[in-house]
């Protein structure tokens, strides 16, 4: 009987070691807001650092907002998301890198955000270059991407 118990304990311990890391993944929330802290058309938080495998949920706190990936600002191989207006949407981030996203109807007003997944920022240069050109076209919040990228360490 002792041999079976020892074998069972070993298999149990081995099973714990092999559990997918996704079981330990976190869920983060980003609010979509018409105004916050004196700023108009914002995501809160606007810059979010997460681990690979984590999920982000966008919640519309005011009507008329959505979350959509900016395809030029996401890592290669990741499928872009495009939430509907007023839709609560969750996205699981499985590839490390920088992700830019927007509120589609308020993109021209600079309603954008950044998510940094993991430590690999291999697409940083492409994402930043696109963002700096895009913000030149914003009617308001013309330095928003510049400010957000300065927060990434």
What's the story with the biggest beta sheet?
A: 4 strands, mixed
* Oligomeric nature of the chains: single chain
Instruction: Tell me the CATH architecture.
Output: Sandwich
Distance between the termini: 56 Å
Cα-atom Rg, whole angstroms?
A: 19 Å
Helix content: 10-25%
What does this entry show, briefly?
The protein is of the alpha/beta class and 153 residues long. The chain is 23% helix and 29% strand.
Kindly list the characteristics that best describe this protein:
153 residues; alpha/beta; Immunoglobulin-like; four-stranded mixed beta sheet; 3 helices
Descriptive report:
This protein has 153 residues and is α/β, with parallel strands linked by helices. It has one domain: Cupredoxins -  blue copper proteins (Immunoglobulin-like). It is built from three helices and eight strands. The chain has helices at 2-17, 124-135, 144-150, and strands spanning 27-36, 39-44, 47-50, 55-60, 68-69, 89-92, 97-102, 112-117. A four-stranded mixed sheet has the order 2-1-4-6, with no helix packed on it. Strands 3-8-7-5 form a four-stranded mixed sheet, covered by helices on one side. β1 (27-36) and β2 (39-44) form a beta hairpin. The termini are far apart. The relative contact order is 0.17. The model has no long low-confidence stretch (mean pLDDT 90).
What is the topology?
Layout lengths: L1 H16 L9 E10 L2 E6 L2 E4 L4 E6 L7 E2 L19 E4 L4 E6 L9 E6 L6 H12 L8 H7 L3
Parallel strand pairs: 1-4, 3-8
Antiparallel strand pairs: 1-2, 4-6, 5-7, 7-8
């Amino acid at each position: 009987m002792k041999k079976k118990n020892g074998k069972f304990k070993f298999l149990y311990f081995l099973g714990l070691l092999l559990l997918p890391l996704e079981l330990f993944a976190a869920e983060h929330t980003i609010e979509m807001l018409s105004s916050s802290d004196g700023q108009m058309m914002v995501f809160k938080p606007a810059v979010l650092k997460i681990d690979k495998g984590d999920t982000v949920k966008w919640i519309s706190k005011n009507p008329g907002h959505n979350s959509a990936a900016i395809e030029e600002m996401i890592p290669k191989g990741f499928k872009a998301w495009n939430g509907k207006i007023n839709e609560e949407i969750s996205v699981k981030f499985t590839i490390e890198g920088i992700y830019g996203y927007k509120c589609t109807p308020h993109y021209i007003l600079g309603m954008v955000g950044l998510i940094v997944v993991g430590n690999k920022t291999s697409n940083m240069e492409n994402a930043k270059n696109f963002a700096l050109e895009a913000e030149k076209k914003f009617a308001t919040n013309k330095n928003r991407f510049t400010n957000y990228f300065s927060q990434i360490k």
